Task: structure prediction
Amino acid sequence: MIVDPHIYGPGWTPTYHPRSVWEDPARPVTGPAWVPRLVDMIVPHYTAAIDLIDGDLGEFIDDLPAYLRAIQRDYVVTRGYSVGYWWAIDWLGGIWQLRGFDPYTGLGGFKSAANAGHNDHTGPILFLVDGDDEPTGEAMRAARWLNACTRRHPYRGRRTQLAVVDHGRLPIPPGNPTACAGKGIRRVVDKGFLSDEFQTFPTQPQETTDMPTTLHLIPPADAGVPELIVCVDGAGVQLIGLNGSTSQTLALIAAMKATTVSVSAEQYGEFVARAAQ
Ligand SMILES: [Zn+2]
Result:
């Protein structure tokens, strides 16, 4: 899997799979309610299995509901209680609700049953990775988002940062060591990639529309006019540049993070006219 934590921009919302899409009504997830004001820590986990459904050849997202049902069945049958994690995160950054509260409404949710000796004050997240793999950038972004949802939960009563400590580095009861959450996840915990404070983009001013502000305009190929980079915002249209050499153009497009938009000859002419004002 490609590891790229540098995917975390404004306007992003995760793919969320509520319990209802995978749960077997005969074996629902249950547990005592969590107490938001006690929670001060997010705890990553892995399964330790070396061949999970994680996007390798022949592994499909559609197979995850049955996999989660199997985990829940195993917990209920062999341990006598429901799967202990709050959420699972797949390689595409999809979030699967297990014990966790609904991150959109903040409602529901059960106390952790995955962090022995620490269940009152911790929120466990299961990364669906092969063994010691690192999570994908998308998965880390989803984890940061859940971290932020938990940190800002209205019933928590304070918005202090949550510590991120992987399972095996909790001060667990003696005689109960674990390699969880694996070497890859420990590395990204140590780099701060799962922290709500981790930012890869500078804070951007609030936009009032979803419209991209920097556009790389590609006119119709037969129009015989150069490609154009313009900035569109509340102040109007501003010409940033147009192509000199190919390398200069590519550098400018990359620097401006310009969105590529193909336009008609009429639209192109309108942008040029407005930029000239
Ligand atoms: Zn664990």
Summary: Confidence is low (pLDDT under 50) at residues 1-10, 202-211. The first strand starts at residue 16 and ends at 17.
